[in-house]
Amino acid sequence: MERIGRLLVIDTATEALSVALFVGETLIDHHHEISGRGHAEKLIPAIAALPDGGHADEIWVNSGPGSFTGIRVGLAAARALGFAWGAQLRTYSSLALLAAIAQENDAENGIVSVALTGGHGELFWQEFDSVTLDPLMAALSVPVSELAQTANASIVYGTGAQTLVTTRGYGEARPLYPDARSALLLSVKHMSLDASAHYGREADAKPAIAMIAPIS
Which residues of 47-83 are buried (b: 16+ CB within 10 A; e: fewer)? Predict the structure, then answer.
């Protein structure tokens, strides 16, 4: 995705905590670790350690699906910094970024199948055209046992790839985590100005009011 100006990318939707600072299309600095937990404590220091405190004209942030907490942490930081800096805020999908990374590295022509670790024994699942990266289906959150009966891709990418391949007993898993350094692989069609979270499934905890009456 060709661009100019300074861009900060924030990705905390999975076990990976990843930030990257670009000027134009040149990567200036980054921080990437598989931290599992602690994104809320680690994210702001990671951004502050970038040149000029990560100050940018535009901010991209992973809006999910993935970890509820991780998604919220990333979006909250992006909104706050965007407001403080007067920066344009855009969001992208975890699954689209993983498909783009797979395409860049080793995906053959055909279909890129992505499985992302979810919660309660489920995986987030989506398939993309390996040339255009257009989604071939809506993103789903599916129990692993159920997905193993229907997903027949020979190669599966993502954090949930090994779980799916092991459960169904065949295929090749190529584990991948979202990486902020790879965000420029995404095109305009993969970006959104909607800064809402896209969890991919219902939250584990419901607000108390939801037990009394539906929220319109």
Answer: beebeeebebebbbbbbbbbbbebbbbbbebbeebbe
Give the Å distances, CA to CA, from 158 to 1, 32, 109.
Answer: 22, 16, 18
Rounded CA-CA distance 70/61 in Å is: 11
**Whole-model pTM?**
0.90
Under CATH, to which class is 95-174 assigned? Answer: alpha beta
Distance CA 182, CA 91 (A): 14
pLDDT tens digits, 19-32: 999 999 999 999 99
Q: Are 200 and 119 in contact (CB under 8 A)?
A: no
Convert the pLDDT of each residue in 131-176 to its tens digit. 899 999 999 999 999 999 999 999 999 999 999 999 999 999 999 9
Angstrom distance (rounded) from CA 88 to CA 58: 5
